[in-house]
């Protein structure tokens, strides 16, 4: 009887698997009847940042969590159409030949080996996965579908949003051909408006300056954004006169002679270097005022384009809501400026706006577009706070800690929150491992390193002793949702740390005349407010509002800290060190804890003090058996 009931219930469940891979940020997403069940990035398992390989581990985790295998999936959908990308590659080379022959040959070797036959590659990988799960070679793969790159972005932006109708603006480096695309989302349908095609790309323009200023493309753009407030936008006119032609409606065209991304291994050409009077900065060399001014300039140009595009879309359609996705949507400074313009009544930004989030978009394309299923709109959104990844029980964690003989104490929630609040107040830096892992590039209280925002030394301590990264990099506050307007000029929710807003003037500190005369990095240690650890040099902060509904334990921790200190916010940065992905498992967290100068580690209800731990071998390779919550 019970088996018959289970069989009947399984018949009512429709599972869809969305995947992205083979470029960067591979991921897998599992839907059940249109609901997001799990969404995970491959890098979190392999520990290889921006891992682009087939997301074997991510898929296995999703299937294991749902207690299904591939034969239970209705269809599997890939996030773009590789043949259209191959068409762009060929046409671009033919337009620039014979220049770019070395990069073309290198690309062709990859394409002719695997990407051109991607459907076969995917099927082979999926068959291997199913054999791992069931050891049964006789099975039929689910239907394999292909979305389009920018359609996947648009779907990830609109379908999980809290809007019945909105404009959708997608901006990234490049998909198959599109670099900027606009759409209208209504109910369960997405309709294209217009697009800007390769090589004219806002994302690639920003990446070109990222490269020129000595940061890694596709991962260092946020560093460029963080560097911008230290400079002056003195090169805006030069950029607009020489490099990019921006129309009144926000559409644009690049002078492609300044770039090599379409025909070479580098982003910028000699003409670009001559225009600014210097070669590209080599990584790990000194960052000069020149680079800060360039960062400020390209940031200003980006903001101008985004705001102009938004204004023209509002004028063109009259629609009052806006959804954003694509890599450019992770530029939280531009997002904050856009919100402040008041062009739209409300804005929603996909928290996993890059290619990882496109796995989600592709799955939603399959559900709404291919299967024609209706859409349920959540008044907040349907992303579940992005807490969609791996979860570990207290028993899992205790078993692991006992296995490695690590000293720890187990505390109940109320006692734990009091103890952590006391330690934060004492200036300690704490690794906070709580509940399911986040999906996307931001740590939001699931896998975070936390500190006291009132501590004037906290930024330099975290950057230099914990994260081992550039000293100029700013940190973000996590603040109780209802208290956000007490510390920041923001009246909106910002659950995904994708909006920058000014710190309230009432809590800001006026600089002395001597302090005001400082330049660049000299400004970094100046106290600008009563929460100096999260106040950037332009008196702004990248804000995460924390809701009791989406992350009750993190909310209760911050609320306990508020009751103790009167401060409703804490410092929040991702639980990782420079060059590594955010931690996934308790082993990852313990390893990161022991390799840095972190004071305390909290693994769910287990608390570990650094001064009680034994000597640590960073080469230890733990294999942890765990049960899924």
SSE map:
Blueprint: H1 2-11, E1 15-20, E2 27-32, E3 35-41, H2 43-46, H3 56-66, E4 73-78, H4 82-96, H5 101-113, H6 118-134, E5 143-146, H7 149-158, E6 165-171, E7 178-186, E8 189-197, H8 202-212, H9 221-227, H10 236-243, E9 244-246, E10 252-254, H11 270-276, H12 289-317, E11 321-325, H13 332-341, E12 346-349, H14 355-370, H15 394-403, E13 409-410, H16 413-425, E14 430-433, E15 447-451, H17 458-467, E16 476-480, H18 484-487, E17 499-502, H19 513-516, E18 540-546, H20 552-565, E19 569-574, H21 586-595, E20 600-603, E21 606-609
Parallel strand pairs: 1-4, 4-5, 6-11, 11-12, 14-20, 16-18
Antiparallel strand pairs: 1-2, 2-3, 6-7, 7-8, 9-10, 13-21, 14-15, 15-19, 16-19, 17-18, 20-21
Helix pairs in contact: 7-14, 8-12, 12-13, 16-20
Number of helices: 21
The stretches of 5 or more residues where confidence is low (pLDDT under 50) are: 622-629
Average residue-wise pLDDT: 90
CATH class annotation of the largest domain: Alpha Beta
Strand fraction: 15-25%
The oligomerization state is single chain
What is the makeup of the main sheet? 9 strands, mixed
Q: Provide the CATH topology of the largest domain.
A: DHBP synthase
Helix content: 25-40%
